[in-house]
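Fig. S4 source data, part A: sequence.
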Amino acid sequence: QVCPGLRTPQVPVWLCSLSGRHSVLFSTNSLLLSNWKAERVFCLYFYTGQQEQRKATHLTIDTHSHHWEEDQSKATSSPEKKHPALEMAVRTKWAGATINWNGTDPFF
């Protein structure tokens, strides 16, 4: 029998498969499950479980920022301009979101 906490998590959790590796993307903010207004600016944590990652990577997501529009024509036409797979995965839920890696070099 499945525990009710597993059927209805108290905080948002996404299991990811990025570049053939499994990982977890989660938030400690339970309001993301029930209040759409909490989706303006919020934190997500990303953990791969790999030995080289000692702690979860802290990401700040801004769904109303328009920094991504500043030079959109240049970004879309430039083949060398690639986004990390993690950013693309986050944008499947929050299209156009700005992702701040908070000092961590983007990976995945």
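Fig. S4 source data, part B ends here. DSSP finds three helices and five strands in the chain.
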